[in-house]
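Worked Example 4.2. Consider the chain below.
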Amino acid sequence: GVGMGLAAPVNKRTGGLQAGGILPGWDRIHPAVEMEARLGIAVELENDANVGALGEKAFGAGRGVDDFVYIRVSAGIGAGLILGGRPYHGFGGVAGEIGHALSDPAGPICRCGNRGCLESIASPVAVAALLQRSAGRPVSVEQLLELVATGDRGARRAVADAGEAVGRATSILVNILNPELVVVGGDLA
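Applying the procedure from the previous section yields the following structure tokens:
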């Protein structure tokens, strides 16, 4: 079998994606069914943050922990939830989509169509875009990480601000779910 992770909410009841503006053109696609037809073997589809949580549960910091949150800070921002020792998806499969929770009412328009989503101000792509303005040239996520590693003050400030925004969103999850552990992963971890 194959395990497949995608950076979009997965409806566990239908196998479809709730991609909206996140993965344009994928709304009517059932990726696991498509991959099974192409590969000839069973495919299990999951959201990338949930895959991260499952990986931490099996091999990482979440071993032996039944209630934890895995925060994935990558192209998008999501939370994989392990509650009672099992992944928690919610009714439609979008539990943990903190990247599309309001973070700044006056913030930029997000790729989902809403304004001020956490992802639109704190994802690596958004942080790199901030530096493009000050650098006067495009800055990739890889270049952003290099700038941080070499001590660039603007890059470090931008990442610190993003971390603060992610921390605020995470604190809400912690107050609601009361997990034993929070694990942070992804490009800006």
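The helical segments are 31-39, 48-59, 118-122, 124-135, 141-149, 153-177. Strands lie at 2-6, 43-47, 68-73, 77-83, 86-88, 181-185. Compare this with Example 4.1 before moving on.
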